[in-house]
Amino acid sequence: MNRILACLARNQLLISLTVLALALLFPLVFPSQYSIRMATLCGMYIVLALSLNLITGYTGQVSLGHAAFFGIGAYTAAILATRFGLNFLFTFIAAAIVAGLAAFLLGLPTLKLKGHYLAMVTLGFCEIVRLVEMNWMGLTRGPLGILNIPPPSLWGFTIDAPIEYYYFIVALVVLTIKLVQNIVDSRVGKGLIAISEDEIAAEAMGINILRYKVMVFVISAALAGFAGAFYAQYMSYIDPTSFGTDQSISIFIMIIFGGLASIPGTIIGVIVLTLLPEVLRGLMDFRLIIYGLILIAMMLVKPEGLLGNINFTRIKKAADGKKAGELK
Amino acid sequence: MKPLLGIERVTQRFGGLVAVSNVSFQIFENEIIGVIGPNGAGKTTLFNIITGIYKPTEGKVMYDEGNIAGFRPHEITQSGLARTFQNIRLFQNMTVLENVLVGMHTRTKANLFDAVFRTGRLKKEQLEATQKAEYYLRLVDLYEHRHSAAKNLPYGSQRKLEIARAMASEPRLLLLDEPAAGMNEQETAELMEFIGKLKALGYTILLIEHDMKLVMNICERIIVFDHGCLIAQGEPEVIKKEPKVIEAYLGKEA
Amino acid sequence: MFIQQLVNGLTIGSTYALVAIGFTLIFGVLELINFAHGSFYMVGAYFTLMLMLAMGGNFVLAFIISLALTGALGAMMDHFALRRIRERRATKDAALISTIGIATVIDHSVLEFFGSETKSFPAVLNLGKITVGNTIISYMQILIFAVAVILMGLLTFILYKTRIGKAMRAVSQNMDAAKLMGINVNFVISFTFLVASVLAAIAGTMVGMYYQAIEVTMGFAIGMKSFAAAVLGGISVLPGAMLGGLIIGVVEALGASISSGYRDAIAFAVLIIVLVFKPSGLLGKKHNNKV
């Protein structure tokens, strides 16, 4: 097992490129509307789950309100696109900024709270945001939702075919992975991981804990806002039911299932959990019961998640170190 | 000569409990000072006050002539103090090297922008930081283990790693909370030698320790705590004979 | 009008308090947010109703069997779905996901067996009402409030005066130490789940009688609100859960008369504001970081 992991770790770049190539070829091999749609939604959930992983996985702060930022981004983009006809460069960036700002305002006073208190606050925030979306008729049209959101277009080119959306989300996924990877690999990322391991020790090492938590919460929310903008323009219709606490909890389940603080784990977790209900479709109404049982079974068998506790960068370094030692 | 650290009439209350009561003492550059006293005497509370985990109810903590009482722990580390913990607080799942790199946090500068765009500055700094971290690991003989997870190190090595991590923040004053706890005789002897080396490197050291042999051998001055009060301070030879100290340790009858 | 809303708020708040106490008990022993707790509240109400219909309207017997079934279900949940995770010393997140899995299984099983439509709950106790000034107080409201108060008293007695209660408190203080003292920790935890589930089932049944209707989705909302109530009062502090439940019930009833659309948001808004100023909840103890 360890040797397999070391081998995987050593060939990280090759594997990443292979996966990317497979992702690019996917719609050519499975050209049906249904498969492309599922793959596009998977991509969107990967962006959402990776962004939640920044705050919950790497920094250790349980957030059960990620769908709120997803929704804020979606509504920002939808309103700007339908009422002001702004192009997608602007709607996407605005969605990220507004979601980030909401996270800043929520995080500054609440991120000093410990574990379960923070979980409750974020969960409550998500519920409040959903109710605002539901009741502020003038802005969001409440339960009627926002219809006819135009597809993203820029300089005369419009993304409207399903396959174009798919490549668009693949690009977003690649960017998100790169972003998360770069943050985690840096001095800043080590600070975040230190906070998740031991706040007192991290503070004693000179890390300004609150500042780091707020910063990463804002980044995480901004990415979710981005995903929200994508969702709004992809679906062309949004209503508050897509952004409730149940959605927050599903994203949370995805990152735990895949393994906290693991990028490949998150990707696999999202794909498995998005496709599972589809695979179980034959079971009709029983499928959600089975889904629940699978969650329980998974946590009993592998509580750390699919790829939890496996850090390829460290495995690679250790393997390289060992090799260097042998050469000496 | 001006003191590096001056504790001035510091008192710490928790509700009705007085954990540290009107304590004053000074530490000068390049000294090794030992803090001793029975369990619950307020030694660790004192460390927590100096490093900003508690804000003292009364009194001043003068460091380098500024009052740092009430500063946040990260600000205090920034200003040049670093500590280890009585119950080892390493980042257990990080590697040995990463632990030391986190220790260098205040002495490195790469920000979020550098991280996201992997700027030249970030790469240069990462390389330099790694080299420096490896230097500290060589000092404590852990270089060979730099890629192991901290939790897989034996107990004695974990204590050494905590010291290396504290050194990485380039402090002038090192606070060591029971560095020899849980070590065997040989490890303790090595530790004593190592602390001597730290002095030679120019560090000032304040340490809490129960191992009397260690304290008496390497400390130039000793501060004795009992029930939150500073009951004696002076050179080891003097402290050994001080009746109040004997009383605190052995009870009145003795 | 104000008094009327206050009375309504206290009634519903006392049921929140009962559910919140269960949350707090479980949180106390395991530091676990039990996402399935609301499902036990719902399933308790369903058991009572379905048994009553099956037994030709014998409410008392149906109620007793329902409590036994729900309690057993709670203890089984701990035994089969949580014990192993705990023994492997896995993260709390894993146990939390497991409780979400349990909630999913329970909710969808109920949907499967009993259907998704709202069920009307027959008026088993037609007690009438009294009018004080222009405030109407039904005897049902008084009954709910009284039952809640009695149960809280009983629970306090169990926790502080009985052997099992002392064991529960010992486990919540320090599980390892309790084990060393010869306490059967797993039994105590399962028992805690049993008590919490029974309390939830009592609350669920009473709310069913009060509104004369039950539905599958009733569990999720109350689960979140009583979680909020427990945190508001200071999680793992028993009187805190009671206080939190009552406050949320009252604030919600008063707020609903101002803006009904935001009714469900009020509990959370209050909670966030309180936590910003008092991070450990209203009655929670502020503890210094142990270093």
Automatic annotation (TrEMBL), chain A:
Q: Name one Pfam family in it.
A: BPD_transp_2
Tell me the keywords, alphabetical order: Cell membrane, Membrane, Transmembrane, Transmembrane helix
Keyword Cell membrane listed? yes
How does the protein associate with the membrane? Multi-pass membrane protein
**Annotated CDD domains:** TM_PBP1_LivM_like (cd06581)
Q: Could you tell me the superkingdom of the organism this chain comes from?
A: Bacteria
| Coiled-coil segments | none
* Keyword Transmembrane annotated: yes
Spans traversing the lipid bilayer? 12-30, 36-55, 62-82, 88-108, 115-132, 165-184, 214-234, 249-276, 288-307
Query: Any idea where this protein resides?
Result: Cell membrane
Q: What is this protein called?
A: Branched-chain amino acid transport system permease protein
Which organism does this record belong to?
Paenibacillus forsythiae
UniProtKB/TrEMBL annotation, chain B:
The residues forming a coiled coil are none
Q: Check the record and name the Gene3D superfamilies matching this protein.
A: P-loop containing nucleotide triphosphate hydrolases
Q: Which CDD domains match?
A: ABC_Mj1267_LivG_branched
Record-annotated ABC transporter domain positions:
5-252
Question: Which keywords fit this entry according to its UniProt record?
Answer: ATP-binding, Nucleotide-binding, Transport
- SUPFAM superfamilies reported in the protein's UniProt record: P-loop containing nucleoside triphosphate hydrolases (SSF52540)
- In the UniProt record, does the keyword Transit peptide occur? no
Example of a GO MF term? ATP binding
Can you say what this protein is called?
Branched-chain amino acid transport system ATP-binding protein
Automatic annotation (TrEMBL), chain C:
- Membrane-topology annotation of the record: Multi-pass membrane protein
Q: Does the keyword Cell membrane apply?
A: yes
Q: What's a Pfam family in this record? A: BPD_transp_2
Q: Which InterPro entries match?
A: ABC_transp_permease, BCAA_transport_permease
The superkingdom listed in its UniProt entry is: Bacteria
What main location does UniProt list?
Answer: membrane
Subcellular location(s): the record lists: Cell membrane
- The regions listed as transmembrane in this protein's record are 12-33, 45-73, 94-116, 136-160, 181-207, 227-254, 266-284
Keywords linked to the UniProt accession: Amino-acid transport, Cell inner membrane, Cell membrane, Membrane, Transmembrane, Transmembrane helix, Transport
Please tell me whether the keyword Isomerase is annotated for this protein: no
Cross-referenced PANTHER family, in alphabetical order?
BRANCHED-CHAIN AMINO ACID TRANSPORT SYSTEM PERMEASE PROTEIN LIVH (PTHR11795), HIGH-AFFINITY BRANCHED-CHAIN AMINO ACID TRANSPORT SYSTEM PERMEASE PROTEIN LIVH (PTHR11795:SF371)
| Entry similarity comment | Belongs to the binding-protein-dependent transport system permease family. LivHM subfamily.
Q: What is the name listed in the Swiss-Prot or TrEMBL entry for this protein?
A: Branched-chain amino acid transport system permease protein
Look up and give the organism this protein is from: Paenibacillus forsythiae
Q: What is the lineage of its organism?
A: Bacteria, Bacillati, Bacillota, Bacilli, Bacillales
